Amino acid sequence: MKHWEAHPEYVEGCFGCKGLTLSMNAGDADSRRVMPNKKFNRELEAYKEAREQGIQPAGTSMRKIEEAVKASETLGRAYDAQKMPPAKHINKKSAEVMKELGV
Questions:
Q1: Distance between CA 55 and CA 77 in Å, rounded?
Q2: CB 67 within 8 A of CB 85
Q3: Residue 41 domain-assigned?
Q4: What's the rounded Cα separation, in Å, for the pair 90 and 92?
Q5: Is residue 84 part of a domain?
Q6: DSSP for 15-49, written as a single string
Q7: How far apart are the first and last CA of the chain?
Q8: Is the dihedral of CA 67, 73, 79, 84 positive or negative?
Q9: Do residues 54 and 26 lie in contact, with contact meaning Cβ atoms separated by under 8 Å?
Q10: Is 96 inside a domain boundary?
Q11: Which of 5, 53, 85, 102 sits in a 20 to 30 Å window from 59, CA-based?
C-alpha cells in the first residue's frame, strides 16, 4: 500500500498501479472448484451401467461404484447397498456366509 502514498489515483502506464489491480486465481488447484464435467460424466455413466445390471452402489462416487461391482462379482449376483454389508468388506469368505444366511 506504500504505492498509494506516492500517488493516490490510478495512473495509466504505472506498473505499481497495474499490479494493484491484479487478482490471483488458483485455477485447477482451487479445492473449492466443482468436479470437472469429464469426470462427472464418467462417474454418472458408470453409475448408470451399474444400475442397469441391478447393482445398487452405496453412493455415486467412482470408488463406491467400483466397490459395488467388485462385490457383485464376488457374490455372483447383484450387490445392494441397502440390504447388504458395505461392499468393501465383501470377500469370498463373507460371500459364502451371506449365501448360507440367504442375504
A1: 9
A2: no
A3: yes
A4: 7
A5: yes
A6: HHHHHHH-----GGG-TTSPPPHHHHHHHHHHHHH
A7: 69
A8: negative
A9: no
A10: yes
A11: 102
**Cell triple for 66:** 467400483
| pLDDT one-digit tens code per residue, 50-77 | 999 999 999 999 999 999 999 999 999 9
- List all residues 6 or more positions away from 22 whose beta carbon is below 8 Å from its beta carbon: none
Q: Which domain holds residue 67?
A: 35-103
Contacts of 9 (CB under 8 A, 6+ apart): none
- Among positive and negative, which fits the CA dihedral 38, 43, 44, 45? positive
Instruction: Give the position of cell 504505492.
Output: 3
Any idea which residue has 498501479 for its cell?
A: 17
Q: Which residue has the cell 485455477?
A: 27
Residue 80: per-residue pLDDT = 92
Q: pLDDT above 70 covers what percent of the chain? A: 88
**What is the pTM for the complete model shown?**
0.63
Rg (the chain; Cα; Å) = 27
Q: Number of structural domains, the chain?
A: 1
The neighbouring-strand residues paired with 19 are none
